[in-house]
């Protein structure tokens, strides 16, 4: 199913599957683990509360698990950030100003797959929030983006 994610209409220029590090796994599973541990200490007479906490822990883990990207694609006319299932977030080149190495303090939409600043990339958009992602290789991602973005500009200039 992930292979179908980047093959709609546009040609794929570059595809990246981000690595998830131990810190990100901890962030994903810590809230649920905490809720499950708390459910174990609920007295037996409050079984409904314990069941509710367990279900809530599963929902929290599921939501957090689903919002971690699984694929970054640079296409002919957009950047696509893919999540589990067929859910994706597209960033059309019309809205992109630049893509650069991320700084420590970013304001915008943060969609990291790991906590390493070494891989962080920031997509700066016109009149919209910036988007921070963590491809496997920052320099390779930026290089492919610049090539695709420049080709898109040339093509757009010829057809306008």
**Main beta sheet strand tally, sense and closure:** 4 strands, antiparallel
Number of strands: 8
Strand order of the largest sheet: 1-2-3-4
Strand content: 15-25%
Distance between the termini: 36 Å
* Silhouette: elongated
Can you tell me about this structure?
- It is a single chain.
- By secondary structure, the protein is α+β, with helices and mostly antiparallel strands.
- The radius of gyration is 19 Å and the shape is elongated.
- It has a four-stranded antiparallel sheet with strand order 1-2-3-4, with helices on one face.
- The two termini are 36 Å apart.
- The longest helix is centred in the C-terminal third of the chain and has 22 residues, at 138-159.
- α2 (22-40) packs antiparallel against α3 (47-66).
- The chain has two domains: 2-18 and 71-159, PH-domain like; 22-66.
- The model has no long low-confidence stretch (mean pLDDT 84).
- The chain is built from four helices and eight strands; from the N terminus they run αβααβββββββα.
- A hairpin with a 4-residue loop joins β7 (121-125) and β8.
List the helices and strands and how they pair.
Elements: H1 2-5, E1 12-16, H2 22-40, H3 47-66, E2 71-75, E3 78-82, E4 88-92, E5 96-101, E6 108-111, E7 121-125, E8 130-133, H4 138-159
Parallel strand pairs: 6-8
Antiparallel strand pairs: 1-2, 2-3, 3-4, 5-7, 7-8
Helix pairs in contact: 2-3
